[in-house]
Queue: 4 jobs
Job 1
Amino acid sequence: MNHNLHFQHRTAGILMPIFSLPSPFGIGSFGKPAYNFIDFLALAKQKYWQVLPLNPTDTYNSPYASPSAFAGNSLFIDLELLIKQGLLKKSELHLDFQDTRCTSPTLSINHLSLTHNPYIDYKKIQNTHYPLYKKAFFRFTKNDNYNNFIQKNSHWLNAYIVYQSNLTGESVDYFAFLQYIFYTQWQALKAYANSKGISIIGDIPLYVAEKSVDEISNPHLFLLDKNNSPTLVAGCPPDDFSKDGQKWGNPLYNWEAHRQSGYKWWIERLAHNLLIYDAVRLDHFRGLEQFFAIPKEKTALDGSWHLGGGEHFIKTINSWFNNPPLIAEDLGHITDGVRHLLKVSNYPTMRVLNFGFNAPLGKSEHLPHNFANHTVAYSQTHDTDTICGLYNKSSAKTKADMNDYFGTKNGENIGFLGAVSILKSPANTAIIPLSDYLNLDSTARVNTPGTVGNHNWSYHHDSTHLNKELAQKIARQTILSGRV
């Protein structure tokens, strides 16, 4: 079988969550900071910008347990763009909630920093952004573009706005407005990226949250009891991330019901994502072959494996979308069944440098010299530490191994050198989080699995991180590695 038509050439990209973008308003958005980042990517000779899911988050700010598989996170709506639309006044953007590190609400690549809080204060952001969105909503006049958006997205939007209205008591029109603004700003940003030769890689979580709009609207598609409550929930057994396994708590799919429907919900979900991104990573691909089910009142140690959508699902998807640009996240315990499904799918798989020092020295498939061509290689994921963070917490032996592998002493410049080792690897696609190019420590870690709080999903880059000198350094290594 020929390889997937996508990801065949040597290319490079940077992983940057929207919320982590430098911003004068405390959280990344679809405005000037995002456009500046695209300019940075172009200067750095990058092909891809990979983001984390853009969906609304759960109460712990995780986009991997979303109340909707289709809706967008309204906190990414840019306030300055609302001013340009005449929906907000500049005087309404009070300085008391702007990030004190910025002297101006407009950033440039070389903008200097004053003080910087590396973590997002979500409660503060919500308390300041939502009243401004309400002001913008009251000033908004429906137009043809709005009406077309409502019509084209009715298959998910109608249920979502009713769901949110029931939760909050706000009008359905308000939530329709937020989704319209979200997707209008995002599509404009994506168009700008594409015009600069940058493709955007999105991310689809396998599961949705319990009591999500998707579960409530389609209870037959989930494993629920007669009261529409799950008795089994999602998670994973002990692995490299957690010695006791993880209990995520998401409701599980009724794959037989999905099959009988012709996978209608999944096809709509993938079609939606392939419209808003240029390519998509399928999180927890392993769960499509077999999923781990945990009794709701017990721990991950009491879980068991059950068959997922499997080969029939993958072949249906590949036939429907004709060789879709998907990446299979195949991390964790991989069985012969998963390997067979990966072969059937023909999607490029993932390798992660941070796992490379767990196996006997030099043998790990996660070390760059062992990467296969049909691979998307990462230095870290949103669930692992940075390279510097890993080094700092490693044993003396592992530190020595890492120093020798990357050709440095005492961990000096080890994040950047680790990133370069991936660029030089045989993997067709190399995706590096900006934090490794910057040699940032565990402060910049995005998430620690199995924990809540702990600054998860809240790391926020300083505006000085996106500077011309770094872009040129990355460009030089990208060119030397034959990825331009």
Job 2
Amino acid sequence: MDFSLSPDIKALCDKVRRFVDDRLIPRESDRANYDAHDNISPDVLEALRAEARAEGLWAPQMPRGRGGLGLPVTGWASFYEEANRSIFGPLCFNCAAPDDGNMSVLNKVLHSEAEKDRWLQPIIDGRIRSSFVMTEPSPGSGSDPGGMMLTRAVRSGGTYTVHGRKWFISGADGASHFILVARTSDDPRNGLSAFLFHKDQPGWRILRRIPTMGPEELGGTCELEFDGLEIPEENRLMAEGDGLRLTQIRLGPARLTHCMRWLGLSRRCLEIAQDYVSGRRAFGMLLSERESVQMMLGEIAADIEKGRLLTMLAAWKLDRGEKAQKEIAMAKIHVADTLNRAADVGVQLLGARGYSKDTVLEWIYRYARCARLVDGASEVHSMVLARSLARQGSDFWTWG
């Protein structure tokens, strides 16, 4: 594996870094640039998105023919990392969750150009937002959708009628295009199917925008109720019974793009901490000269680099056509932990300033806790690794 970026991708990432430093980070300190849910305000976002598109920094994961940059997954890794050195970055470059995962899976599973024009292109263009609707309240599905999903889509003729409830659905408030996973049979392996629906279709509603401890993603995390939503057969994605397969097609790369973004946030925490301790004196010396501080920063730097290597390895395997399930699980566990530690160390070294809203450290600190939960809790990914180890034995450690 060659870790060198191609000249084109390196130049692109350098351009992203300059855009983040010059246009995004300075805006983070002004609370007028935030909405009521602690994210970037829509008017500021639209202006910055226009600037990013004008600079050729738009939708790195999408094909060039549809307005993206057409990067390989290893290119995503470097681009996303640079983008999320600002908390506003992924949204401004149209590579934020859940839209990036939804765009990627729709680009893979929609077969006709007409379908892509209708369901995918508006998301790529940034004209609308999208949402992935899977998780359910107990006793429904969480980390085990195949075995526990209760929402049903009953077929009659050429139409499916949906009844059920979903919750913690990212970005649902204000989204226009939705990917819904629902049960179509009791088959334990092939009982789920996936569908597309538009926000204006009757038979469903948002019950509430669930308050969370962290800054909310654009569109929040919502609880939804389905009470007779009718979806025509032509809006089913893949074959009936392929819902779990579609979910895995989407979630594998989506988990890894989370890691790419979180590495950028981890680096930002380290940058803020380094800048502070290099100028802060206490008891006759700079904090940066204290061995205890150096150890804290050095350990986080090493953790970030480990996360970058794990993430790039998984991206490299995806580019080679492999599923990289084991590598993605490792990256997801490690990078989620690293983000939490980086934010905590940043807050600790800045003291009261880190705990205040004078820097973005407290924003990142609150956001970081969800990293060990979203797209599969860390414990679930540890189970994946244990099963892989049991199945592969010594081949678990094979190079290449």
Job 3
Amino acid sequence: MGDLISIIVPVYNVENFIEETMDSVLAQTYADWELLLVEDCSNDNTVTLIRQYMERTGDSRIRLLRQPANMGAARARNRGLREAEGRYVSYLDADDLWVPQKLERELAFMKEKDAAFAFTGYEFADERGRGTGKVVHVPEMLTYKQALSNTTIFTTTVMFDTKKIPKEQLEMPVMKSEDTALWFKVLRSGIVAYGLDENLVKYRRAGRTLSSNKLEAIRRIWNLYRRAEGMNVISSAGHFCFWALRAVKRRI
């Protein structure tokens, strides 16, 4: 067995996707993982499907954690982080998919770079999880200053080494764009994020009303610069322009 990787998945009303997402974890070529499904009080058939899947597969690496109330993705991920037993932590959204080599390739990359924080390339996918051919390439590395205007780090591609970054530092802020706020927080401490420019993830965009709402996305990123990073209006506007250009480029 190798180094244990804890995979943290916030789960809320994803009955149409969760089984396929779990399938993509079980298909991994790297087998030393635990899957922490943090269920955030879904009101559809999600919990029943997860329990049936666990019974059907009999895979003891899958753990279902129930939140006492609907508390949002940031708190769900933080709950998973607290209960994670692995040295390495990966995030996976409940409607996204990994290619079978994702964990194996990213872990090897982290060891090669002696990295504390890594992320990979990814491909946009339709509602059925089929790749659209639009692949997002990532830079070799990102510092805090670079990341402020280049938010290409996508949650489902990330891996952390908790021997290099204390778990307390990996707690997600409870705010909108909590994932990007976490990347900024970690990078601000002087850590560098290393990018593995391989397409190892399928990002299913269909049905993501928050992400697809352009005005809401603009508000979230602007507030991130102003509130979380404490930038003045001029600095925020400069970084925002670079963010907007790159965001458009990723989608065309």
Job 4
Amino acid sequence: MALKNKRGDNYPEWYQNVISEADMAENSSSPGCMVIKPWGYGIWEKIKDALDEEIKETDHENCYFPMFIPLSFFQKEAEHVEGFAKEMAVVTHSRLEQKDGKLVPASPLDEPLIVRPTSEAIIADAFSKWVKSYRDLPVLINQWANVVRWEMRPRLFLRTREFLWQEGHTAHSNAKEAEEETIRMLDVYKKVSEEVLAMPVIPGRKPEHEKFPGAIDTYCIEAMMQDGKALQAGTSHFLGQNFAKAANISFVNKQNQQEYAYTTSWGVSTRLIGGLIMTHADDEGMVVPPRIAPYQVVFIPMVKKPEDEQRIMDYIGKITSRIKSETPFGEKIRIKVDKRDKNSTDKFWEWTRKGAPIICEIGVRDLEGGNVMVRERIKLNTPEGKHVVGVEDFSQTISSRLEKIQKEMFEKAQKRLNDNIRTDIKTAEEFKTYFTSPNEWIEDGKQGKVAFVRGKWCGDENSEELLKAMKITIRCLPFDQSGTEGECLLTGKKGATLDVIYAKSY
């Protein structure tokens, strides 16, 4: 029972259709914002839990800062302000009053407040008060928060005016330590993306024109979606002393000399859910990796006669009692018994649309045979996707089943990424022809018309305009540089040495 929109027919509509049918989120009456519904928010909670654990393992502590930031704080860092100016929401009044029968703003603020687009400015101010000596360093903090950026073309999970995220901020006594911190956290993002979200990524450094406003260097992880476009899944920024100088984060070093700290910032957001959808969903709906599924195993009672209902429910209760102590991925298994008074076939398709990893349909025949009907979401329309197993076998293998599904989802996405990175394009002419071809959904196991190109770039200052004209971007300079020379695919110049990933992007 495929969705009304298929990936290969209309990818953007398919994406919206997946979200709607999986009941993950919806557009809010507040323009440009979204309501994240329980299934979507449950996925975010599991991502948050996994990432929060990794962040704390690296000695960072959680805290919280105000969402309102004085305008003067941003004016201290000109490049940072310029980078976010068009996206900032500004509070100018403190209350409303009735006038001619309408509510209008009253009581202008002495100083406008920016609704947090990111927190470097307000956190740098706090660091300037906390840091006085080298003994106060490093400062390693993280916050889970909402931010506001006034997007002109909102799209659920990918770009909304308000979204949820995590942002880490640190201060260090020297540049080497701060740079190491920047890469360490990028490695954390890569680990969570691949091991938890089953979403393979390419780590690398952003080109100069793509850096975070005010940063010395920006590093990123880039994922490939099923339509061949890139999604920036996380960023980590080495800020040098720029923000420290603007906010006066200074300290007395071991030589009893005053100097400025070196800072970093790094973050991921609910955009990861958009990445999940476009990495794993299919023409039947969402497919959720078991590690972040709010419910990993869903039981649907198949009741045909009212007198059988209690027997079936008791049988399901015995099964869930057997498996509730199982710990796939080292965590207690998450089980849902769908007791709603609703057609069982409709319930099956609802959970299929949501992408629950394992759906078990239990009827009288299963009860009498001591069996479980198991449906694996990733193999929905295959012979292996539906099979009957004994309760004992089911109980003993449920953890390994879920772990195997997780592994297979990552391997499938990794193969798609590997198969669709073009490395055979060597000239600017070939490159232009490739990226002016129609963009298509990439069928699994086949080469898409337009996806990623890994090739040479000369670092030309005019690159940004050339990229805009072709409607592509340089996603990153991968860490595994070849060190060879070749023709710049963008300008045609000879002797280019930088390896980059070119792609269309979200």
